[in-house]
Design goal:
The structure is a homotrimer. By secondary structure, chain A is α/β, with parallel strands linked by helices. Chain A has five helices and 39 strands. Helices cover 17% and strands 29% of the residues of chain A. In chain A, the strands form six sheets. Chain A has a twelve-stranded mixed sheet, with helices on one face.
């Protein structure tokens, strides 16, 4: 979406001071303005930034009177926050594919198109797939045999659903995420060569789950890898086979959950956290970024940290001493000398 | 694949108690049953779960006599484990693309199709590519110029092979994995600006290697990034340029191996492990999840842990003390006071 | 690209000793030679490797006289390094798609094709996209509505650009990287259910930025996620919403930067590093692999390490003591006993 300053001004019923032909491709924040963007001066405390922002256009109130010369053009409006809201809506048009099935998609015979569904170019839909009303399937998505998708699902470009994956209503899966691939399961034979364990389970995402870009959720070995309703998973997260994640839990980027572990509801898991396999993590546990969780013994609502993770404050206190270990080492040595002297004196 | 309970029952030559029209899309475990699935009661110790499982159908022996009412339908069979095996085979049909080259694929002239090869829609195959018999190339795969693939290779949707990649027989590469991209190599010029080092090496996967979803293996700078036979690599793993990984090694999800390191055979590398560059790691080393390996000095078969990694038991013992450091700090302070008192007394 | 030994020899105006029909698919290093490759003996110190390399062809000087029998064929040339350079150029031909728009691409009407641009099969280009001269768009790339790409940009297969992303001149984005997806932002409602915060900002990559395979850069919430000129980002890195990264910074594989943090120019960030949100990291800071950065207080040019990160040498010194903590614990206990004895004696 490219606008020029004059068009933006008209949209906002504002008054333009400056060059109407300047092209604008999006919004930016006034303290991080960049060329080609429009920004806002809604908070008077940020006025200083108005004079050095690199944004090309600033939306200001009709009353705004600059204290010094401005490089940016101005659009004066009655209500800056309302104007901002209006622009946000304009720029958020996200180019979803058109309703219906693109002539460039590959959809197996017998597919039953529900109302409001969009299927973009180069989408592959295998046999026995069902997709609920108003779902949006962006280009380059692969939907394996027997997958079932709820209403209003959004699959961004390049999402891969292995066969029999089940996606609840209103779930969002971001670009290039992979759901339902084989778990990492092998049996070493007598020579130590790994023989693959067939994975024929599935993945179930309940309603309102969101999965980040390039994240991976493995299918169950025999059963189900289950992510319960309302849970949000960030980019590049790994969820291994047979894991269960409770409701309304958030998992930040690059965290990994090993096979067969169960995470409670309302948990908050930081970025790059690693959770070992076969654990049961309680509800509402908060795990600090990068922690390594090797046991499930922490009670509901605990906050943990470290590698292996221990209670958050215990880790911070121990680490505060850790930083001074060389000094403590010297103090121990000094004590040893003094005690040795005392003993000699006594003898 | 969607079945109803009556069809399943017929397949298993069983006896149905309940609604034959219930739809079933896959199997689940009895203690983690979910709607729309079939489960099994083979182990009498799990009988309690039969009464509260959310699975819609339970396969039981002909003799099974419930102690209380059941929500699920039952299919009674002669041999529960045999029935389970039969279903596993049925559900594992994974919807591979049809044999031959899809009319929707883009394959350069001169490609020589071997027997039993399947090439799905929207696959791109560049010049001078060779693919062995019985290989399965799922939709949306990209195979760059000059790649050579062995027999029985499986490339799942969205796999990207950069030019000249070599994939051995029976290798499996999961969805959206990238093999052969440029290594992360730059030379800072006199201004500190990074100039790209051209990478013209290749990647070689020997026979029976498996690579997880969204994993990345960089090409060699000039030479080869080599993964030897039988090695299994999990999702989201990073293998940098010029790395060599020995035979029958397993590397869990999100681990990363920096440039030019060599990993031995029969090694076991945990999730999120980081291995620095230019190291030589011995055979059969076992590296605990999240460890950071900064040296290759550990002997064959060692087990290591920590950041930087040290012998496993040493880390656990040191960490056991670490957790109580604030207490030891106080004990040192107390000792200092007492020794000071003793010295004063003496004076 | 597959050559045989005789063709290579002709290309290099050399003299062949051995089988001219041997097929060669690429170069390798002499100490890591593998079948099907050509290698070089330029450094006399490496001569021992010439006798046991598995490469099929070795390029040597006209004067080279082997001390023992060789398995490989030889190509004798006047200048080994010059020949090497020539081959490197030959093998680096990377199979870019042909100039123009592939008949198998999906490009919205109104797209204005600049000179020298290549757009491969199964590329999707949405409305209002602009692409500069000489850009190369490999197969299976998705370019969302309103994206603007500079001159000479290279997007490898499967790259996904969400709408309104802006890519500077000569940027390179590797396969399956995702740029511009929604940030991980939710507001918990009164029941603790997460409500999605709409992300309508953008991503801007300035000139000469490189992004690794399967990396992810989130769009700004309202403003911009900004990666400044000359910065290089490795595979599987996560850059969250509203982050700013300075010029000529390098970030190694699997590192993650949480929302709204600012990284300075000329910084060096190791693999698997995690940087918390809302920090301001100074210029030229060097962060050791796997460190966790929880504060921005480190001055320009510092080197830091640990979890949480502290000055590099401080961490190493503290960790050196950490490894011997069980011994120090015993020494404290011993001291306590001795001091207690001394006190008893005195009493």
């Amino acid at each position: 979406m490219i606008w020029n300053a004059a068009q933006l001004c008209e949209l906002l019923a504002g008054e333009l001071e400056g060059d109407g032909t300047t092209e604008i491709y999006g919004p930016s924040q006034i303290d991080k303005g960049i060329p080609g963007t429009v920004t806002f001066l809604a908070n008077p405390k940020l006025e200083d930034h108005a004079y050095d922002t690199q944004a090309d256009v600033i939306i200001v109130s009709r009353e705004f009177s600059p204290r010094q010369p401005l490089k940016a053009s101005l659009i004066r409006v009655d209500d800056v926050r309302q104007a901002m809201q209006k622009l946000v809506e304009k720029f958020s048009v996200n180019g979803r594919p058109e309703e219906g099935i693109s002539a460039l998609a590959s959809v197996k015979e017998g597919f039953d198109l529900q109302s409001g569904v969009s299927i973009g170019p180069f989408v592959t839909i295998e046999k026995d797939v069902r997709i609920g009303a108003n779902a949006v399937i962006y280009p380059h998505v692969y939907i394996g045999k027997g997958c079932i998708l709820g209403e209003g699902v959004i699959l961004y470009p390049g999402v891969r659903l292995y066969p029999n994956t089940r996606i609840g209503n209103r779930c969002i899966v971001h670009a290039n995420a992979v759901i339902g691939c084989d778990g990492f399961g092998y049996r070493p034979d007598e020579k130590g060569h790994y023989q693959k364990i067939q994975h024929i389970g599935t993945v179930v995402l309940e309603d309102d789950v969101e999965i980040g870009a390039n994240a991976v959720v493995d299918r169950g070995t025999l059963g189900v890898t289950l992510i319960k309703k309302g849970t949000k998973i960030d980019n590049l997260v790994q969820v291994a086979h047979n894991v269960t994640i409770g409701e309304h839990t958030v998992i930040a980027a690059q965290a990994g959950i090993a096979g067969s572990s169960t995470i409670g509801s309302g948990a908050r898991i930081g970025g790059q956290v690693g959770i070992a396999g076969h654990l049961k993590i309680a509800d509402r546990v908060e795990i600090q970024a990068q922690s390594g969780v090797h046991t499930g013994k922490y009670p509901e609502g605990s906050r943990i940290f470290g590698y292996p993770a221990i209670p958050y404050n215990d880790y911070l206190k121990a680490y505060a001493v850790f930083k001074h270990l060389p000094e403590y080492m010297r103090r121990i040595e000094e004590l040893e000398k003094q005690v040795s002297d005392l003993k000699k004196d006594k003898a």
